[in-house]
Design brief:
By secondary structure, the protein is of the alpha/beta class. Helix content is 39%, strand content 20%. It contains 12 helices and 10 strands. Strands 1, 2, 3, 4, 5, 6, 7, 8, 9 and 10 form a 10-stranded mixed beta sheet that branches. β5, α5 and β6 form a beta-alpha-beta unit. The longest helix has 30 residues. It is globular and about 60 Å long. The two termini are 47 Å apart. The N terminus is likely disordered.
């Protein structure tokens, strides 16, 4: 009898070992889905202005990439925003970037250098357009900006692109009917605080720290950008089809003087690379973006909206083959 018990014990131990190896094999499949060696080398990630969401997201993503791909060095490079980011990636100055879908469509429509090589890795989170004014300002609509000093974003930024379009949708010429100031979110709050500008446009994830910090120092309001502006923006077949009506929740900025949700305009952000980027590297990069959502989202609220179910929709860009490989492997 002891011999039988011993044989049963050995059999169970062997079965346990086989099960453990199976679990390890599944774990290895998850970490190394293609069976290829871990990528190595250097990549450059073009982000945005230092106080914007793109840069903060990039810093946290770089930390996650360092853990997941220890043999890949990631260099972050600040920029003026979407339009400059796309030019960098398309011309080989950077390997990955973030850009808004409307900026991508414009880059393609204008047939800029390398436009046909751009590829999407993931749809990330939406940018929300924010028109910020002092609380005591008489500006209640975009049309009220006529004759005012307005910060509209730097040349090469997605903010400049959408602010010009919103002004035009409200019946204003962006160059003649307002006094445009070409500055970014790194200096917009100071200029509003000193009353050097009457208002500023910003397009970014919620909340943007620069806007939040300003609201804690100064009484400010967010001007509603209602559905009628989106209707004026959208034209069939035009790049403005990437804009949609949205609502900034009342708690997006706890200190702004609006006591309710604010209607606005939203546009999707895309993770962008080119067809030159190695498929294995792109697979792993995309995997880390999705897997790091919760960790990054604890510090960058907008990142919580990254979703595996919608990430694959990178219109107007075709999906990179490495990203497509990841999504196939990640199917439930």
């Amino acid at each position: 009898m002891p011999t039988l018990i011993a044989r049963i014990g050995r059999r169970r131990a062997l079965q346990g070992a086989v099960a453990a190896l199976a679990v390890c094999g599944l774990l290895l499949w998850w970490l190394l889905p293609s069976g290829a060696p871990s990528p190595s080398g250097q990549v450059t990630f073009s982000t945005g202005v230092r106080t914007g969401v793109y840069q903060r997201y990039g810093v946290l993503l770089e930390e996650a990439l360092r853990r997941d791909m220890p043999q890949v060095g990631v260099t972050l490079r600040t920029s003026e925003g979407s339009q400059q980011n796309l030019a960098r990636v398309a011309t080989g100055e950077a390997d990955f970037t973030i850009a808004t879908a409307d900026a991508v469509a414009k880059y393609q429509r204008d047939r800029r250098e390398g436009a046909d090589r751009l590829r999407g890795c993931a749809r990330l989170y939406d940018d929300y357009v924010q028109l910020v004014v002092p609380d005591d300002s008489k500006i209640r609509t975009v049309a009220d900006l006529r004759g005012k000093e307005v910060a509209v974003g730097q040349e090469g930024s997605g903010v400049r692109l959408v602010s010009n379009r919103l002004l035009a949708a409200a019946g204003l010429d962006p160059e003649r009917d307002v006094r445009p100031v070409s500055i970014g979110i790194d200096t917009m709050p100071e200029q509003l605080e000193s009353r050097s500008v009457d208002a500023f446009f910003w397009s970014g994830g919620l909340p943007t720290s620069a806007v939040r910090d300003l609201s804690e120092r100064m009484a400010v309001r967010l001007v509603p950008l209602g559905p009628e502006l989106v209707e004026a923006l959208q034209k069939p077949g035009d790049i403005t089809r990437y804009y949609r009506s949205a609502v900034m929740p009342a708690d997006a900025y706890g200190k702004v003087r609006n006591q309710a949700a604010v209607p606005t305009v939203a546009v999707a952000n895309l993770l962008v690379t080119t067809d030159r980027t190695d498929p294995e590297l792109t697979d792993r990069f995309t995997r880390t973006v999705i897997a790091s959502r919760d960790g990054i989202g604890r510090q960058v609220h907008a990142a919580q909206l990254v979703d595996l179910r919608t990430a694959i929709y990178t219109d107007p860009l075709p999906l990179h083959e490495g990203a497509a490989r990841y999504y196939r492997s990640a199917k439930p």
